[in-house]
Structures are given as structure tokens and as C-alpha cells.
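Sequence in, structure out.
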Amino acid sequence: MPVVLLLAVASSFSLGVADYLSGVTLRIDERPDAALTYTALATALGAAVAVLALPFVTPDSFTSRDGWWAVAAGCCLGVALPLLMVGISRGPIAIVAPVIGLAALAVPAILGPLLGDELSALEVAGLLLAFPAAALVAVSPAQPRANALPVAQAFGIAVTSGGFLGGAAICYGRTAPASGIGPGIVSQLTAAALLVGVALVWGRWLRPTVQASRPAAGFGALSGIATVLSVLAYQRGSVAIVAAVLGLAPGPTILLARFLDHEPINPAQLVGFAFGFGAVVLFALG
């Protein structure tokens, strides 16, 4: 369990930094199709990063079953990631961020035990603590935004995005540990192909700007690293617990926004950080 927890924490940190860079990307490029453009490029770059890791973590085997679950995970990511970027960039962030985190956590927490995950009493306690932690860490004061989405639409986007992220977690957990990072590569390539296909059908050209491409490259690379680490964690531990740790990814995002953009941290977020730390400790002890 300590190795699984370490993989999950490292993945959560990488994901949190990637989310910050995705927000920077869309602040630079505010075009309507920017989310589609940069998620397509990011998933392709993420797959490339995962391929570079192959010599160090070569899979022992990769079956057709692993491949189909990886494709399913990639389809989930292809739906979730553009919605996540749109929701985060157009807010209201005080609704979108907590709802995405809770939905992404709820799906594995509910389905994981039904699919065979066995949790100790301490792990169940940590899971129960992770729910308020994910909600509180992502709490942000409401800020008016140009072209902001209506609350009902933002809520729907957040639930859909978080639900599909949770679905990807379930799919990764169904792959065999022997397949290693193979499912991560396949899922990233699937997501990239799906997004490019949607762009072609929609009649949109993927045209990144030079300025936005720089943070987008970091977003893609770190997303790829997070995917590799999370796949390894899902294969070796409880899907519900790994998803709970990944649900704390807004923590690094908020800390970066605090130190780089001078955004304040409110008391609710501090409570969320404390709950999150407590949840990780319970998972480690469990």
C-alpha cells in the first residue's frame, strides 16, 4: 500500500500542476475552440511522454482485454478533459471545481467496492474524510467573468466531466498490473484521436498560438506523467482510494495560484488541506 499511495500522491501533484497550466493556457488563448485544441495536443504529448517511459517500465504483457479497457478510458478522457478546461476557465469556479472533484471521486467510491475492492475500516474512514477534503480544497470565492456560463450549465458540465474522469479511473483499475503503463499510452492516444476527430467533424482547425503553446506543453507533459503514475497505482491498489488521493489535485493548483498569481487561500481551503492530509494518513495506516 505505501508504494500505491506514493504513486497516487505523485500523480495528484503532477495533475494539480497540469491543471494550473491548463488554466494559464486558456487565459492566454480565449478562443471558443481553445479547449478542444489544447486538450487534443496535450493528450498527444502525454502519450509521447508515456512512450518515453517505456524503456524504464516495460510491460510484462498486454492483452486485448487491457487494450479495450484502455480505449474505454481514453474515450472517457476525450469527453472529460475539454469539459474540465471549459468549466474551469469560464466558471463559476466556486461551483465547477468542487463538483468536478466530488463527481470524479464518487464514481470510483461507489463502483469500486461493487467491483471487488476491499477496504479496511481505516481506509473507509479516510475515504469519508476525502469527500469534504475534495470539496473544501477546491472552494474559491465567486468572481465575475466575461462570458461566464449560467450556473445550471456550469453544474452540468462539472458533473459530466467529473463523472467521466471517475469512469476512466474504473477502466484503468480493470487493467492487469502486468500491462504496466501500456493502458496509459493507449488511453492518451485514444483521447487525442477522438478529439481530433471531433474537431474535423465540427469543422474546427486545431490552431494553437505560440504564447499559449508553452504552458500547454507543460500541461500535456505533466498530464502524461500523471496518467502513467495513476495507471500504475490503479492497477496495484484500491480504485476508490487512488481516486480519493487524486481528488486532492486542486491543492497544488491552489498553492501555485497563491505564490505565482498572488491569489488568497481562504479558511475553508485550509480546512480542506487538513482533511486531505488526514485522509492520506488514514490510507497509509490502513
